[in-house]
UniProtKB/TrEMBL annotation:
GO terms for biological process: unsaturated fatty acid biosynthetic process. It comes from Oncorhynchus kisutch (Coho salmon). This is Cytochrome b5 heme-binding domain-containing protein. Pathway: Lipid metabolism; polyunsaturated fatty acid biosynthesis. The lineage of its organism: Eukaryota, Metazoa, Chordata, Craniata, Vertebrata. Residues 4-77 form the Cytochrome b5 heme-binding domain. InterPro entries: Cyt_B5-like_heme/steroid-bd, Cyt_B5-like_heme/steroid_sf, FA_desaturase_dom, Fatty_acid_desaturase. It comes from the Eukaryota. Coiled coil: none annotated.
Length: 426
């Protein structure tokens, strides 16, 4: 007997999880704990049709289907639609046709030369920073220039590991996976598994409360239009939220990487007993202190890496948040893939500088629709995505770099004002 969409939706609890892929119903309750992408990202689709997310995330869907066979418990009834009720069937079909075209034109295939040159420019920046100290010594001006070069290399390595992370999905024996470990571990001192499990949740459910960790503000900020009102009605005041657009500059960009991420990374590696990632991370710090201890000593080297992280953190926050923070945030609504991603993302105008500065994440829309697409192809698919959005009346937003950054502050102020109004009057 075929399953109905309503019967599948009932199995959305931590101890009882079903999902649908290509009309087949799977019980993932036990297997979710072994999911390579982490238990949370797959659990976010419990009780839903996960076909679009399944196709988007996996480089080789046929390989993954081998693991799904033992989990199969049935199919949707013939009278049931091929997507969740409420989704636009024509839009889903048109987006699938676009994805088929993208695959047939080879836009999901990476160019090794592009990434080799990109990695080379990161290594060159690090070598030049060290060379400056050997030749010119540790004057304040040279030390500052060295710090700027190291912060640049760290930021660019961050964009590169982001690429390798997406391109290594279900390819853990491949070169992309090994390069991901090298770049995020040895060049940045972080954890590949921590990043994967966190970042894939963001892509699976962007700007969805309780599912996207990037908008889990730990009561420090209230975000969007709905959360501030909810906090205000409940008289929650963990912080003076009507001033959050001001204190954001003190605890947002300066602290996210050197404090919050660093604590979270090491806590995760130790709690998960992830000794491989810990070894990669330690290799970064060993190399860093071996290189800079002769110039600055131990405490001077600690001060240098702290300042580099401080600079990198500002870069990271502005680039990532200008395309997400001002966008719509909501609780789960089970939208189709294109609508969900477009409501949570916007693009920043293309230019040589913007491409380099953001690691091509100025094409956030294309990146979110096709997370395994190599960045050098975003500009090729962008006109096709824009045309599809125009056909179906889905907003496709493109901003200048300046507007993208100022909108971050404006959105925080707007949310803070909504909180204050609800707190005082509702």
């Amino acid at each position: 007997v075929g399953q109905t969409g309503q019967s599948v939706q009932k199995h959305c609890h931590r101890s009882d999880q079903w999902l649908v892929i290509d009309r087949k119903v799977y019980n993932i309750t036990q297997w979710a704990k072994r999911h390579p992408g982490g238990i949370r990202v797959i659990s976010h689709f419990a009780g839903e049709d996960a076909t679009e997310a399944f196709v988007a995330f996996h480089l080789d869907p046929n390989f993954v289907r081998k693991f799904l066979k033992p989990l199969l418990i049935g199919e949707l009834a013939p009278t049931e639609p091929s997507q969740d009720h409420g989704k636009n069937a024509v839009l889903v079909q048109d987006f699938q046709a676009l994805r088929d075209r993208v695959e047939s034109e080879g836009l999901l295939r990476a160019r090794p030369l592009f990434f080799s040159l990109y990695l080379g420019h990161i290594l060159l920046l690090e070598a030049l920073a060290l060379g400056l100290l050997w030749v010119w010594g540790t004057s304040w001006s040279i030390t500052l220039l060295c710090s700027l070069m190291l912060a640049t290399s760290q930021a660019q390595a961050g964009w590169l590991q982001h690429d390798y992370g997406h391109l290594s999905v279900c390819k853990k024996s491949g070169w992309n996976h090994k390069l991901h470990k090298f770049v995020i571990g040895h060049l940045k001192g972080a954890s590949a598994n921590w990043w994967n499990h966190r970042h894939f949740q963001h892509h699976a459910k962007p700007n969805i409360f309780r599912k996207d960790p990037d908008i889990n503000s730990l009561h420090v900020f209230v975000l969007g239009d709905k959360q501030p009102v909810e906090y205000g009605i409940k008289k929650l005041k963990y912080m003076p939220y009507h001033h959050q657009h001001q204190y954001f500059f003190l605890i947002g960009p300066p602290l996210i990487i050197p404090v919050f991420f660093n604590i979270q990374i090491f806590r995760t590696m130790f709690s998960q007993r992830d000794w491989v990632d810990l070894a990669w991370s330690m290799s970064f710090y060993l190399r860093f202190f071996c290189c800079y201890y002769p110039f600055f000593g131990f405490f001077g080297s600690v001060a240098l890496i702290s300042f580099v992280r401080f600079l990198e953190s500002h870069w990271f926050v502005w680039v990532t948040q200008m395309s997400h923070l001002p966008m719509e945030m909501d609780h789960e609504r089970q939208q189709d893939w294109l609508t969900m991603q477009l409501s949570a993302t916007c693009n920043i105008e293309q230019s040589t500088f913007n491409d380099w500065f953001s690691g091509h994440l100025n094409f956030q829309i294309e990146h979110h629709l096709f997370p395994t697409m190599p960045r050098h192809n975003y500009h090729l698919v962008a006109p096709l995505v824009r045309a599809l959005c125009e056909k179906h009346g889905v907003p496709y937003q493109v901003k200048t770099l300046q507007k993208g950054m100022t909108d971050v502050v404006r959105s925080l102020k707007k949310s803070g004002d909504l909180w204050l109004d609800a707190y005082l009057h509702k």
